[in-house]
Amino acid sequence: MPQQWDADIHLTTDDVARLIEQQFPALAPVQPEQMGIGWDNAAFLVNQQWVFRFPRRTVAAKLLDREIRILPLLAPQLPLPISSPIYAGEPTADFTYRFAGYPLLPGRTADRQFGSDDQRAALAPDLAGFLRALHRIPIDESVRGWAPPDEFARTDIQRRAPKVKQSLIANPAGLADADIQLLIGRLDTFAVAYLRPGVTCWVHGDLYARHLVLNPAGGLAGVIDWGDVHIGDPAVDLSIVFSFLPAAARRMFSDVYGTVDPATWDRARFRAIHYGALLAEYGAASGDQAIKALGAYMLHDALA
User: Fold this and answer.
1) Chain center to CA of 267
2) Does residue 207 contact residue 237 with C-beta atoms inside 8 Å?
3) What is the pLDDT of residue 184?
4) Closest Cα partner for 52 from 1, 89, 81, 80?
5) pTM score, whole prediction
6) Among residues 103, 130, 152, which one ends one of the domains?
7) Domain, as residue range, for 75
8) Tens digits of per-residue pLDDT, 254-288?
9) Closest CA to 55 of 118, 117, 10
10) Among positive and negative, which fits the CA dihedral 123, 129, 134, 136?
11) Contact 15, 25 (CB under 8 A)
């Protein structure tokens, strides 16, 4: 596995139980079950009621700090539940990062309940309404003074397009050569027409199928994993239109979300291609076939 995917620290379920019981004795006896391991965090289901997330690397610890500070401010202003932390664990001699516990949002993530085109299209109004509310949360100057910006320039097409093109060529994710060349051509077109965002707002920052929670009926039940939340380009989140929703649902999304200028849509489509290439690369390197397949789907969707 390439070094950039390696973790700084690994926890066992015994480690997790001990850390939680030390700081939150009311939860004892802690019975953790590993839920999943992502790029940045390991997640454990605790007592069938709480989800605790533990950073796996230094940069992830900083992202978790964001959630602890920011999400309680955003959650009351959003139309769907989000993974806002209730428990904030402090560093110890055994585990040098903060960790957090959240109420379990019942359901399955959309990558595990992907559904048909029609089923995903049915999510467009609720998804659009959620992003409309998030992107319109007022931000005063005092908040802008401390809120994190987009340190990674996620939608700077001119800066990022060359690396994305290299990734597509090196790891085509099962796409035909003609499709890869079409994606590369679109990247070149976007780069020529690139305009910086005129407005910034609160954005999730990492919105894709694995961070959407669906209820048993297939409806949108919540949005999780907010470690990349920041004030930035709404196109970062609008990329979900080109990476998850079928093409036929895009007008339905726009009718609810509202008017989006063409340059923002270009940046959103670029972000979908970039993230699809990244997920396909990560899935291939880590052996995570579900993520690899999701990356390939995102690239196919961005072609439509």
Assistant:
1) 17
2) yes
3) 96
4) 89
5) 0.91
6) 103
7) 3-103
8) 999 999 999 999 999 999 999 999 999 988 888 88
9) 10
10) positive
11) no
